[in-house]
Amino acid sequence: MKVKNICCIGAGYVGGPTMAIIAQKSPEITVTVVDINEQRIAAWNDPDVEQIPIYEPGLSEVVAEARGRNLFFSTDVDAAIDAADMIFISVNTPTKTYGMGKGMAADLKYIELCARQIARVATTDKIVVEKSTLPVRTAEALKNILDNTGNGVNFQILSNPEFLAEGTAVSDLHKPDRVLIGGDLDTEAGREAIQALVAVYAHWVTKDNILTTNVWSSELSKLTANAFLAQRVSSINALSELCEVTGADIQEVSKAIGMDSRIGPKFLQASVGFGGSCFQKDILNLVYIAKSFGLHEVADYWEQVIIMNDHQKRRFAAKLVKTLYNTVSGKRIAMLGWAFKKDTNDTRESASIYVADYLLNEQAMVVVYDPKVTQEQILADLDYLGTRSEAENRTLIKVVNSAEAACEQAHAVALMTEWDAFKSLDWNSIYDQMLKPAFLFDGRRLLDRKVLEEIGFDFYAIGS
Ligand SMILES: NC(=O)C1=CN([C@@H]2O[C@H](COP(=O)(O)OP(=O)(O)OC[C@H]3O[C@@H](n4cnc5c(N)ncnc54)[C@H](O)[C@@H]3O)[C@@H](O)[C@H]2O)C=CC1
Ligand SMILES: O=C(O)[C@H]1O[C@H](OP(=O)(O)OP(=O)(O)OC[C@H]2O[C@@H](n3ccc(=O)[nH]c3=O)[C@H](O)[C@@H]2O)[C@H](O)[C@@H](O)[C@@H]1O
Predict the structure, then answer these.
(1) Which ligand number lies closest to the CA of residue 274?
(2) Which ligand 2 atom is the nearest neighbour of the CA of 266?
(3) Ligand 2 within 6 A of 340 CB?
(4) Which residue range or ranges hold the UDP-glucose/GDP-mannose dehydrogenase C-terminal domain (predicted)?
(5) In the chain, N or C terminus with fewer CB closer than 10 Å?
(6) Is the predicted ipTM greater than 0.85, yes or no?
(7) Pocket test for ligand 2, best of 229, 234, 419 (most atoms within 8 A of CB)
């Protein structure tokens, strides 16, 4: 079977970029990305392609090439489902905030709504692809809903988790380490569905890099990949604290261990803690699944990755307060960077949110600058924590539009996101504008200690 018409439900950080690349590379396939969020769809359709709702290097060029040709964004979910022979589900799967599994399990209500909508609308056979990250065995529930409430239509369910990282989404999608497709290998129809999706990716990915497995392996591999990646960050961050008390330097340790080809150099960058919408959510989900099978040692093992990450964020904030003579009350603290990593405007679970919250509890006056994050977003992130009233957040935090403005008259600077532009700031002039002693806390190991100390900063960097 040759796929001619794809629908993707969910026009977010995954649905948008993933479908843009599929459309770019497969001009003969019509790709329609649908979402219930009208504002988001309007932004994807903005005539000025720079206004698309997600900032990713290279993405606006891809959208400009394919949009209106074979890539469409719409709020008419029913029509797109009906027309498609393959439907990707790419909706959010956040951590549950209520009921059983609160704070750990993935909330699958959006997934289930999609399945019910597909079942209601579909009049022809469909291949339904899980693109969202889901707990192992979700495909079973999806199949159940589709088969029992459908219109006698045949559904094949595939798992095709996404491994792109934000900030590098376009290059990750153009050159994936692998594409993973899980399906029903035991039936002819299942194998055909798998091959239909393989053929879509084969437009630009070599067959050797397209891996096919059973559905459960595919679902579990996604959670496992994120858990392994996050575990590396927590491992190196755990050692960054040991470096600080022993005189070892975490950059040197990372390099030394990363040159062992069995360990490898990537993902060993000490930081103020990992953020992003997925690592924490997916590990909590893994922990919950393990617990639900009674595998308590397995659950505890993975939970430690989160415990360590929370500690790292708190430890950074506490170090700042302690260094500023144990009080930041009424002191101006500049925070450079709010996004959870460079080259994205995404702030979900960013370490900055938690460090700012800690400093606000200590009555600091926090002044934030991020090149891609709006004031509205920063305030919304703080309000979401619910630590204090919205009015108080607005009194205590200020958002400015340059790094220099943030640092003016500040007692300390906390460098939170590794934006390249922060490396080339005029640190001499920033130093002149700050109160003395001028403290600089590098949560990303971005800056050169020697240079900053020569300027006069009291310099602290994670892991040394
Ligand atoms: N953000 C990332 O870098 C990655 C995310 N993932 C996974 O992909 C999934 C989606 O993540 P994001 O794109 O970041 O989420 P997102 O929150 O940016 O986008 C999800 C979109 O789905 C829409 N939606 C929800 N229910 C809907 C419905 N019933 N009908 C139509 N639209 C609906 C929402 O309005 C929203 O725009 C999650 O499971 C996530 O774990 C996987 C790999 C990378
Ligand atoms: O499922 C997902 O959502 C995605 O999660 C991560 O991608 P992402 O969160 O976008 O970005 P990463 O580059 O993994 O960074 C995550 C966090 O870890 C931090 N990090 C990363 C690497 C490192 O060495 N040190 C470190 O502190 C980053 O600054 C960031 O806060 C994975 O890398 C993707 O493969 C996966 O698809």
Answers:
(1) 2
(2) 24
(3) yes
(4) 334-449
(5) N
(6) yes
(7) 229
Ligand nearest to the CA of 226: 2
Q: What is d(CA 207, CA 287) in angstroms, rounded to the nearest whole number?
A: 33
Residue 346 CA to ligand 2 center (angstroms) comes to 12
C-alpha separations of 61 from 88, 295, 420, 424 in Å = 23, 47, 22, 27
pTM of structure = 0.96
Crossing angle for the helix pair 215-246 and 279-292, nearest 10 degrees? 120
Nearest CA residue ID for atom 43, ligand 1: 162
Contact (Cβ atoms closer than 8 angstroms) between residue 444 and residue 418? yes
Q: Could you report the per-residue pLDDT of 102-152, keeping only the tens digit for each?
A: 999 999 999 999 999 999 999 999 999 999 999 988 989 899 999 887 678
310-364 residue pLDDT tens: 999 999 999 999 999 999 999 999 999 999 999 999 999 999 999 999 999 999 9
* Model confidence pLDDT, tens digit, residues 202-224: 999 999 999 999 999 999 999 99
- Distance in angstroms (rounded) separating the CA atoms of residues 227 and 225: 5
pLDDT value at residue 150: 62
Cβ atoms 86, 126 nearer than 8 A: yes
Instruction: Enumerate domains of the chain plus CATH numbers.
Output: 5-205 (3.40.50.720), 214-464 (3.40.50.720)
Query: Which of these is catalytic: 8, 243, 278, 407?
Result: 278
Distance 211 CA to ligand 2 centre (A): 22
Closest to 67 in 3D by CA, of 101, 22, 13: 22
